[in-house]
Write a structure and sequence with these properties.
Elements (H helix, E strand, L loop, with lengths): L2 H8 L6 H9 L2 E5 L4 E3 L7 E7 L2 E6 L5 E7 L4 E2 L2 H6 L6 E4 L3 E7 H10 L2 H26 L2 H11 L1 H6 L2 H7 L4 H14 L1
Antiparallel strand pairs: 1-8, 2-7, 3-6, 3-8, 4-5, 4-7
Helix pairs in contact: 6-9, 8-9
């Protein structure tokens, strides 16, 4: 059941079989039905999540009620509300399943104890967060430097599985586009391929 998450970790660090077993014993398996919440606005997030099956999106609502997608995750991706976790404050985001999903959760308290006991996992989580920040920085640059078509082309090339599975309206939102404009951009990009 936990083979994929252990492969994810093994890309960066090597755990002994005892350490791997202990890590897996700390995981909670959460089934999230399509359209159901993993994280609700106003809840305090106290865990790191790993998507074993399905897809999810993280979004917030602006004062007018419009939703803005900031993160998408499918199998083998990690998901959480880092701000809520670190500062123990109510989440300003919602995380909803786009497909039936299975997420492995590790609670902060258990994670911190495991990190203290198995120092190489500190390295793993540092790498995980460095990659997350790098992706976020790239997305910020693209929003200011690339045209809508260039952003979509980059997204499509970098994340082909997302482009096949995530509904277009959420890709549009993730790229900072209205669904209508995204349809025009998408049509133009696909015609040139």
């Amino acid at each position: 059941m936990f083979q994929q998450i252990l492969k994810n970790i093994a890309r960066h660090v090597t755990l002994t079989s005892e350490e791997a077993d202990e890590f897996c014993s700390l995981l909670e398996v959460k089934q999230v039905k399509k359209r159901a919440h993993l994280i609700r606005y106003g809840e305090i997030c106290d865990y790191e999540g790993y998507v074993n099956k399905g897809s999810l999106r993280t979004f917030f609502k602006d004062p007018e009620g419009a939703e803005h997608t900031v993160y998408l995750a499918i199998e083998d991706w990690w998901i959480s509300d880092l701000n809520s976790r670190i500062y123990k404050t109510p989440s300003r985001y919602e995380v909803v399943a786009l497909e039936d999903a299975e997420v492995f959760l590790i609670r902060d308290e258990a994670l911190e104890a495991f990190l203290a006991k198995v120092p190489c996992m500190e390295h793993f989580y540092r790498k995980l967060f460095q990659y997350s920040v790098a992706v976020y920085q790239e997305k910020l640059l693209q929003a200011h430097q690339l045209t809508a078509a260039e952003r979509y082309r980059y997204f499509r090339n970098k994340y082909p599985e997302f482009d096949r599975r995530i509904p277009q309206k959420y890709i549009a939102s993730f790229l900072g586009l209205t669904p209508e404009f995204f349809n025009t951009v998408r049509s133009q990009v696909l015609k040139k391929e």
